[in-house]
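Collaborator request, handled under Task 6.
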Amino acid sequence: MSDVILELNELHTHFFTDSGEVPAVDGVSFKLHKGEVVGVVGESGCGKSVTSLSVMQLVPNPPGRIVSGEVNFKGENIAVAREKRMKEIRGNEIAMIFQEPMTSLNPVYSIGNQLIEAVRMHKKVSKKEARNKAIEMLEIVGIPRPSEVVDEFPHQLSGGMRQRVMIAMAMSCDPEVLIADEPTTALDVTIQAQILDLMRNLNKEQDTAILLITHDLGVVAEMCDRVVVMYSGQVVEEGTVREILKDPKHPYTKGLIRSLPKLYEKEQKLYSIPGTVPKPSMDHVGCRFAPRCEFAWDRCVEENPDLYELGAERKARCFLYDEKEKVTEGGPQYDEADPRG
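Structure tokens returned to the collaborator:
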């Protein structure tokens, strides 16, 4: 499609450690359209953050690096771009908001100095113009007394205010893509709602495409157009928010939805997916979710399923959706709990 602004194609990012090669991102593919909000969800350690860092070429090397695949930004494969080109892209065309702003803001420089640096790095403006732009951006993201805050230091601001500063910095050069890595995790629910409203408004007013990395399905339901579900370094399901939340296809996604507390049920025991996430390994055989899946059969432990097409940008990595699969003796036994719906 002509409006695809960012496309990951079979992206592999590995870490080379003393104990061996670790495939943190193992063949991830998805698309982000202009003006769209896509959520990437999954348990801690599933590869969400490493995927976002790979897009920006910010994976620390050593020990990690992109070993294969493509990150196509407006048709250009930036996975192989030189550092000079990436400096032009980062913050200017693709911006990123990190989970903990205190580790992203330099404690010895004022808020204004850091915003001014971000603006002047990509825009040919004077220091005075950059300062005015910094104050304007602080005002846009809802920070009170922006002309005073611009001269304050990160430790003088609350967590919510620091996150607003990070958003102001990210949006200061009008990027076409904004990557938000768990932007509300460390904030209380009131501030979280304000930050989400702010991101939603920026998306609508500036038509900025947003890649939202999160484990919070409530945030996904509120913010996103489409959802990519990751498990153990791979995409296991993809679809619209309504499709994923109302009719999940992959057994892992079904487990995530079942684990959410129900508002109108009393004396309930929360569901949890049995087992634990497997450690990433180059030697893994079969479906990554098979040891935890109640629908697994022989084929699941012998082969890794493809990401099967179920419709327009609707996919699931499960043999239950392999059209060539026949129900035979010893094969999958379907019942009323059939994850195919």
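The cover message to the collaborator said: "Residues 102-174 form one domain. Residues 326-331, 333-337 have pLDDT under 50 and may be disordered. Please let us know whether this matches your experimental observations."
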